[in-house]
């Protein structure tokens, strides 16, 4: 595409620096300008409609035209457009949202701390973990374990938790308090002939060995996203969390569940922790909390953690952490309305009623010559693209084969996202069975054309 001088595309190239974008390529190809939304579709500035097969960034659960959320924001803007929560100030929507979240929590929880993004929520959780251990007199427990291929955000701390090379390389990360253990992707990392359960045991053993090597008295917390969405929809094998949690309990290590993507019905339960049997001490959430209509995130802590934070703040004189916009009235009002909609439309059961079609459609790609593995849970899934289905060999990354599938999909009116060697699906949860079939028909064209391109 040539970029017309003085067009909005040219102005974008001149002035906007994009996240997760190759700036050199972007200067040549320019942006894709999105102007509107309608249900599961977004519309570009030439009027083309696209199924948003990734719900934006795994977040637009109610699609792109939910009037009730617009109205909730408008009402709150008129009533109280801003106030903060510092120094004991509060407002009703933040209180109601905190109450609602504690009610919905998959395990007993005590308090909610608001932030604006998933990264901030995970940063906050890390700081709470350190503050907690200082407060309970275990100041040496400072190291945090995450997993290779995990995604927990991009701030200095949360990017350190993230276990992906591009988030570390040349950013001088990770920081040295963060360690990474095995990624629980059986398809890629199991030994030949190893069962899923044996692989889960090996992952838990590897965690224990890491803890032993570093010294159990130095390990503070384990961060885990129930299924690892941005790493390429990595679904842990059966018994994985059971075995991991036994190790954490043995060494008195906190579990933090990152529910930023899995939270709010995505996996067929309100939280991914329920789907995978996790019993976290701290839960972080964002994205579908407000259906992405407002930036908001939350950190929920159990009573044990809260009591220590309370003690610490009493001793020091304040809990010296907080964001100007944390618990913003408009964001909390929109999140509350989102949760009302989930309840009224019985979103968990709606997802359950369509996830069979979603997963069947995904697994129907397992025979495709480019697909080595189809995997997913609930309404999220990915296809791993390989050049040899027998050996699982991947294509040379410089060929950008998964990205090519994404480009072809775009031509057929479907937005997906290539993450490494995977093509990912996480549509708005309001999608219908007919729309799921349409989405996969478009994805099949993209895969077939990519296959033909490679011949
Ligand atoms: N945690 C998980 C599991 C995520 O998928 C993401 C973003 O995709 C984040 C944290 C970071 O969230 P944000 O981009 O809002 O900072």
Largest sheet: 7 strands, mixed
User: Total number of β-strand segments?
Assistant: 15
Give, in spatial order, the strands making up the sheet with the most strands. Answer: 4-10-9-8-7-5-6
Structural class: alpha/beta
Spell out which ligands are present. Answer: pyridoxal-5'-phosphate
For the termini, the CA-CA separation is 25 Å
User: Unreliable segments (pLDDT under 50, ≥5 consecutive)?
Assistant: none
Average pLDDT taken over every residue: 97
Q: Categorize the overall geometry.
A: globular
- Helix tally equals 16
Percent range for β-strand residues: 15-25%
**Share of helix among residues?**
40-55%
Question: What Rg, in angstroms, do the CA atoms define?
Answer: 22 Å
Family: Belongs to the class-III pyridoxal-phosphate-dependent aminotransferase family.
Keywords: Aminotransferase, Pyridoxal phosphate, Transferase
Organism: Tardiphaga alba
Protein name: Aspartate aminotransferase family protein
């Amino acid at each position: 595409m040539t970029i017309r001088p003085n067009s909005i595309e040219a102005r974008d190239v001149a002035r906007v620096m994009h996240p997760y974008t190759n700036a050199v390529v972007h200067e040549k190809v320019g942006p894709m300008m999105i102007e509107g939304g309608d249900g599961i579709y977004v519309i570009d500035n030439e009027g083309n409609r696209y199924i948003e097969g990734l719900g934006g960034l795994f977040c637009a659960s109610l699609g792109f035209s939910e009037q009730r959320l617009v109205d909730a924001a408008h009402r709150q803007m008129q009533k109280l457009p801003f106030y903060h929560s510092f120094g004991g100030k509060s407002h009703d929507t933040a209180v109601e949202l905190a109450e609602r979240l504690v009610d919905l929590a998959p395990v007993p929880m005590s308090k909610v701390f608001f932030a604006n993004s998933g990264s901030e929520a995970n940063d906050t959780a890390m700081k709470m973990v350190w503050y907690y251990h200082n407060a309970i007199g275990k100041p040496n427990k400072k190291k945090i374990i995450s997993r290779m291929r995990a995604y927990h955000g991009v701030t200095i701390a949360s990017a350190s938790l993230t276990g992906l090379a591009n988030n570390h390389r040349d950013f001088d990360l990770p920081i040295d308090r963060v360690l990474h253990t095995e990624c629980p992707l059986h398809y890629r990392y199991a030994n030949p002939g190893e069962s899923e359960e044996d692989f889960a045991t090996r992952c838990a053993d590897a965690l224990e060995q890491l803890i032993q090597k570093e010294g159990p008295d130095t390990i503070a917390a384990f961060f885990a996203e129930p299924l690892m969405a941005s790493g390429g929809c990595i679904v842990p094998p059966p018994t994985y969390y059971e075995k991991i949690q036994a190790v954490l309990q043995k060494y008195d290590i906190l579990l933090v569940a990152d529910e930023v993507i899995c939270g709010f019905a995505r996996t067929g339960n309100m939280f991914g922790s329920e789907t995978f049997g996790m019993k976290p001490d701290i839960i972080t959430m964002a994205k579908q909390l407000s259906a992405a209509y407002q930036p908001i995130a939350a950190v929920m802590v159990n009573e044990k953690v809260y009591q220590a934070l309370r003690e610490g703040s009493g001793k020091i004189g304040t809990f010296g952490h907080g964001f100007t916009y944390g618990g913003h009235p408009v964001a909390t009002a929109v999140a509350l309305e989102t949760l009302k909609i989930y309840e009224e439309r019985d979103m968990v059961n709606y997802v359950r009623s369509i996830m069979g079609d979603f997963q069947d459609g995904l697994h129907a790609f397992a025979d495709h010559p480019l697909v080595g593995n189809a995997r997913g849970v609930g309404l999220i899934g990915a296809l791993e693209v390989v050049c040899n289905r027998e050996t699982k060999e991947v294509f040379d990354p410089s060929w950008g084969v998964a990205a090519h599938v994404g480009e072809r999909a775009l031509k057929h009116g479907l937005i997906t996202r290539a993450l490494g060697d995977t093509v990912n699906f996480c549509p708005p949860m309001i999608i219908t069975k007919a729309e799921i079939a349409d989405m996969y028909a478009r994805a099949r064209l993209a895969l077939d054309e990519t296959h033909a391109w490679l011949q």
